[in-house]
Amino acid sequence: MARDFSTSDFELARLTEAAEAANGFGLANGAEPGLVEVEEIAGGCAMFAGAGSPLTHALGIGMNGKLPEGEFDRMEEFFRSRGSASLIDLCPMADMSVVEEVMKRGYRIIEFNNLLLRRIRPDDVRFQPPPGVAISAAGESEREEWSRLLVQGFSGEVEIDEATLRLVRGLTGAGDNLMARLDDAPAGTAGMSRHGGVAMLYGDSTIVAARGHGVQQALIRHRLAGAARAGCQWAMACVIPGSGSHRNYERAGFDLFYMRVNVQRDFA
After folding, report:
1. Is the model's pTM score more than 0.70?
2. Total structural domains in the chain?
3. Which residues is 235 bridged to in the sheet?
4. d(C-alpha 242, C-alpha 112), whole Å
5. Same domain, 128 and 226
6. Which of 66, 80, 134, 177 is deepest in the core (most CB within 10 A)?
């Protein structure tokens, strides 16, 4: 099936980056008090969840034209004052004023992420999971189990880091949390939030013992059905290029919209 969007669509990129920033604010608002700090900067969201945390970064910046004087300094101070390097997930269509500051200030590339996109279709609501796979919303009573399962899936280990578990557990108040079971045994997790007609799919995690049975594919399709029922026009996900998640999202009809460049500046 041909891609149903243009990779040159700047307004669509503004929409996806705005959804990413809104999701950052949503995570902070739904988190346990004091766990995540956020600030609206450069048209996006700067997040801090501890130095070295994967949630500590700036999202969606530079999509509204040239940065105001001193705005980049303000973003860097947000991180520096909290003992963190400055980290940016940078959209390739961000204003050149952002790119110029990144180059001038000696940022280095630390990672690439593919932003995958798919238009929601009416027939998405008809999805049914394969035999043996059951998907349900993870309620308050399952908060601990969902968090532990997510961390186990990401790490590939049964024994997990308690500090990471505390962070994940503290973020379960944001978005829709889903749990998959394979033959009645816990198998995987996923999350979804909705902003401006865009469904953001994240938190995909399948434990090692349950891989190869269509669990992640079922979780993706289940969320697409939910997004269709909610009236969303688009679904997006950010994945590491070449990863298992990358392949599973492509199988579900997602295409590459653009590659984000994640950059970092360390302060002496």
Report:
1. yes
2. 2
3. 118, 199
4. 11
5. yes
6. 177
